[in-house]
Amino acid sequence: MNNLNVKQLTILGFGLSALTILSVYFFQYVMGYQPCELCYAQRNPYYIALPILLLALIFWSKLSKIMITTLVSAMMLIFLWSTYQAGYHAGVEWGFWPGPNTCSGMGDGISLEQLNDIDGSRVVPCDRASVRFFGLSFAGMNAIVSLLIAAIFGLATYKSVKKIA
Description:
The chain has 165 residues and is mostly helical. The protein is built from five helices and no strands. The longest helix has 30 residues, at 65-94. The protein is elongated, with a radius of gyration of 19 Å. Keywords: Membrane, Transmembrane, Transmembrane helix. The chain crosses the membrane at residues 12-32, 44-60, 67-84, 133-158. This is Disulfide bond formation protein B.
């Protein structure tokens, strides 16, 4: 990965991000896994990053070196935030710390069964992993992928800054 240039790293980060969000939709809409409140929150960094990256790649030749450095630095920060969100959610699932009251399946004075009966909707608790692959929940996998994407953009930032200096 060290021999890739800033644009190639950006393409790699974009591709991995797009693949991640597409796999999320696959597991939700094809495989039937329903996301919880924290799962939906973990999608926001991708929703922010993907359109910006797409536009940046389309207009890459028109961007200055400073703009490119700012872009890849911002993407690194966005995916570090994504890593934190996913790590927080994974910690809630493992019981390392409590999740939000609105997400545990047990609000104040109302049971999970009562919530599940409201208009036929189903509450998906954030403190239980719906599935684990090799010991990792979806949140745990997202933490690893987000950290990898952040590292890709960190390397792109390093190379971009080095080019300017």
